[in-house]
C-alpha cells in the first residue's frame, strides 16, 4: 500500500465520524492532515506512518508545533508495547490503521441501520474520542 492509499483510508474513516478533514499540502508539515469534529469542535493533527520507527524521532517536534487545543494522532500499521508506552508518556495517541478501520466500519454500519443516515444509537464523536483520545480531554 502506498502512503497516499494509507492517508486516503485514514481520512475516509474520519469523514465517516463526521469530521471535516483538511489535507496538508506543505512538505514542511509533520502531519498529513487535520480534522475538526463538526459537533464538539475537537481537533486532531494526524501523522500517517506505515512504519512508526520512521516518525518516532519527530514526535516531540510535532507536539511543539501543534496548534492550540489540537491532539496529535499517529496512525501506523503496527507498534510495540514500548511504542505504546511512549505514546502515553509523550501524551499523543498511537493507533493502527486496522483499529481505525474497524471503528470506521462500525460507524458506517450504525449509519446504514438508521433510516435518515444520522446516528441515533450512538454519538459518533464519543466513539472517535474513545479511539483517538483514549477518553482523555485536552
Any chance you could write out the topology, listing elements then pairs?
Blueprint: H1 3-16, E1 19-23, E2 33-37, E3 43-48, H2 59-65, E4 70-76, H3 81-90, E5 93-96, H4 97-113, H5 124-133
Parallel strand pairs: 3-4, 4-5
Antiparallel strand pairs: 1-2, 2-3
Characteristic terms for this protein:
Restriction Endonuclease; alpha/beta; 5 helices; globular; five-stranded mixed beta sheet; 138 residues
How would you explain this protein's 3D organization?
- The chain has helices spanning 3-16, 59-65, 81-90, 97-113, 124-133; strands spanning 19-23, 33-37, 43-48, 70-76, 93-96.
- The chain is of the alpha/beta class.
- It has one domain (3-133): Restriction Endonuclease, CATH 3.40.91.70.
- Strands 1-2-3-4-5 form a 5-stranded mixed sheet.
- Helix 2 links the parallel strand 3 (43-48) and strand 4 (70-76).
- The chain is globular, with a radius of gyration of 15 Å.
- It starts with a helix and ends in a 5-residue tail after the last helix.
- The mean pLDDT is 83.
Shape: globular
State the CATH topology.
Restriction Endonuclease
What gap, in angstroms, lies between the N and C termini? 33 Å
Structural domains: how many: 1
Number of separate strands: 5
CATH architect. name: 3-Layer(aba) Sandwich
- Whole-number mean pLDDT: 83
> What series of H and E elements makes up the topology?
HEEEHEHEHH
Q: Which class in CATH terms? A: Alpha Beta
Helix content: 40-55%
| CATH homologous superfamily placement | Type II restriction endonuclease, HindIII
In short:
By secondary structure, the protein is α/β, with parallel strands linked by helices. It is built from 5 helices and 5 strands. Strands 1-2-3-4-5 form a 5-stranded mixed sheet.
